[in-house]
Specification:
globular; three-stranded antiparallel sheet; alpha+beta; 21 helices; single chain; 623 residues
Length: 623
């Protein structure tokens, strides 16, 4: 191998002209580091943001650059810390090598694939980074630039674990991977890089934080109180990136498809076993997808089909989603599972529903299951009883993503120390009055999504999920504090069994400034119920309805018949649902109200029109 003995320059899209010493280039010019050219930084988000084509390679270079910049800036301002050239070199190399262990599609590998393929095994990409670093130093004989005692130090810096090297300066462990408050140069670089690549905008002034603000007090890196807003913006940007980009609906669907494909190939390729073998892990990159697509083995046929679906944009269909509080995640993980959704879906009586008209502008939450399915003018669609009977947990995905400001549900600013211009050697935590009173009440939330793997199952899966959520809602009544009640016993009759029902609640057609809107039942009360919803319908996303939702099994409804309910009004529920529930013995309704969504050729009964209520049936006077 040719070794570099000179400094070299690159032009980085974020940091501009950057110079690295020969010790950096000797690591860069190895198979272990060059492998990062083939792993997308944003994984499947690249399918949504084509400009986000940057890889772990350039991010690692950027992190190494910022690592060197911040430690040199601190050394120049605080010579009393006695930061050595060895400290500078080790911190720089830790920043350079911190992502050596990332697998295909970045975090998809260690957060989704490994937990499924190797159940019960605790593994993170940082573990693989240390493994690959050891193997690289050994194979390329890098002990002249990384002595044995520095190898352990650099790996501890990558892990952010100061306990592994207690003799070293404690603040050095907060530069690359800060476990105390999450403010480190790894985030500085990937946030700036991801924001630029996705066309977003940011007011972050990272250079100010690094060059003039960062200061070591009592063994911790602190920041000037004048930069508290910048630190808060950094934390908020992290949350925003996770909310809008990393957990994008389509990106998450593709993640699950990629993992399903690799799992289908696992029995033949034994991919999971390769995470502990450096020579094989070298070749585990995003290229695993085209390699399998180009294969001809019969054992890989299922994996090829799923990968081809991704290529052809035939993706898993998101049928519903809802944002929950961070504290509700344990309940969701226990009760909202694929198996529970299937059980609820099988409790529905097969039957018919009607799509909305082609011009469904008054019902923005409604849309057809599939573009090539029948619409309103072509007649009713049907829930296939055979598909319903055959539905299994493997036909859908329930996924939960936790998004936060960097420290789960804690305010990260509570873990950051600040100093003032007049007291640069004394640090303290800032209070809300020192910063702003306009901070969120919670710093984390959980996004629950349900996907159907086949579009033909989308309505069935959605209906099953909504029946299940009604049952979950009733099992967790509100308590006096507004927090979730820990009991799993319902204080109200459950909507399970023959009484389970599911109704469409489209957005109100009234103007947003009406009194009804101001008195909306969705306003949070002093005591909050599960999901922040005062009624179980609040757990359904009105903007993600595939079609008029279905009523569940009812004792008074004949088998094979499914009806749609009209929108509710803010003042209370009218008698439309009651009319639909009245059936003769042969299953026909006793009354014939106007259909919610007219079908071609059918004439609706004439009735007086009311403003904003063109599609409503005739209302009965209230008692």
């Amino acid at each position: 191998m040719a070794t570099s003995t000179q400094n070299r320059h690159i032009h980085d899209s974020i940091h501009g002209a950057v110079e690295f010493g020969s010790h950096v280039w000797r690591i860069v010019d190895t198979k272990h580091f060059q492998r990062l050219r083939h792993i997308k930084q944003l994984g499947t988000s690249y399918y949504v943001w084509p400009g986000a084509a940057h890889n772990r390679f350039e991010h690692s270079l950027g992190t190494a650059y910022l690592s060197r910049q911040i430690i040199l800036a601190i050394r120049s301002r605080q010579p009393e810390l006695e930061i050595t050239d060895r400290d500078v070199r080790c911190v720089e190399l830790a920043g350079l090598c911190h992502d050596l262990g990332h697998g295909p599609w970045s975090h998809v590998w260690d957060t989704m694939y490994i937990p499924r393929a190797l159940k019960g095994r605790k593994w993170a990409h940082e573990d693989a980074s240390e493994m690959m670093f050891d193997d690289m130093v050994k194979k390329y004989e890098l002990h002249d630039i990384v002595p044995p005692e520095d190898v352990e130090f650099i790996k501890a810096l990558i892990a952010g674990d100061r306990q592994r090297c207690p003799a070293e300066k404690s603040f050095l462990f907060e530069i690359v991977a800060n476990k105390r408050n999450g403010i480190d140069v790894d985030k500085f670089d990937y946030m700036a890089r991801d924001v630029r690549a996705t066309g977003d905008s940011s007011n972050l002034s990272l250079n100010r934080l690094i060059q003039t603000s960062a200061r070591v007090i009592d063994g911790e890196i602190c920041y000037n109180i004048k930069d508290a807003d910048q630190i808060y913006e950094l934390c908020h940007t992290r949350f925003k990136l996770h909310k809008t980009i990393y957990n994008h609906k389509t990106a998450k669907a593709i993640e699950h498809m990629l993992i399903d494909a690799v799992m289908a190939a696992e029995p033949f390729l034994k991919i999971a076993e390769q995470i502990s073998i450096p020579d094989k892990y070298l070749h585990l990159t995003d290229n695993i997808m085209p390699r399998i697509q180009a294969s001809t083995e019969n054992e890989l046929e299922e994996a090829r089909k799923i990968f081809d679906r991704v290529t052809n944009r035939d993706l898993y269909r998101c049928v519903d989603y809802k944002v929950f509080s961070f504290d509700e995640r344990p309940i969701l993980e226990k009760e909202v599972t694929e198996e529970a959704v299937v059980a609820a879906a099988k409790s529905l009586a097969p039957g018919r529903f009607r799509f909305p008209p082609k011009d469904a502008s008054n019902f923005p939450g409604f849309g057809s299951i599939d573009d090539d399915q029948e619409d309103a003018e072509d007649g009713p669609a049907i829930i296939d009883a055979e598909r319903q009977a055959a539905l299994t947990a493997s036909d859908l995905v329930v996924t939960m993503s936790t998004m936060h400001y960097g420290m789960k549900n804690e305010n990260p600013l509570n873990k950051i120390s600040f100093y003032s211009k007049r007291n640069p050697n004394r640090s303290a935590h800032a209070t809300s009055g020192d910063l702003s009173t306009l901070q969120p009440a919670s710093f984390a939330e959980v996004l629950l999504r349900v996907y159907a793997k086949d579009a033909k199952d989308a309505l069935l899966v959605q209906a099953g999920y909504r029946v299940l959520m009604k049952q979950v809602w009733e099992r967790h009544p509100r308590d006096a504090s507004g927090l979730l009640s820990p009991t799993l016993e319902s204080s109200q009759p459950s909507s399970s069994g023959s009484d389970a029902s599911i109704e469409a609640v489209p957005p109100s057609t009234q103007p947003a400034t009406t009194e009804n809107t101001r008195q909306s039942k969705r306003t949070f009360s002093k005591t909050r119920s599960f999901g922040g919803a005062d009624e179980p319908d609040g757990l359904f996303n009105q903007f993600n309805t595939l079609a008029p939702a279905l009523s569940g099994p009812r004792a008074s409804t004949s088998p094979g018949r499914v009806t749609a309910a009209r929108p509710r009004v803010s003042q209370g529920e009218d008698d439309w649902s009651t009319e639909l529930a009245k059936h003769r013995a042969d299953g026909s309704p006793e009354t014939q109200p106007a259909p919610l969504f007219p079908v071609r050729g059918a004439e609706s009964p004439k009735r007086p029109r009311e403003d904003g209520d063109e599609l409503d049936p005739v209302k009965k006077p209230r008692s």
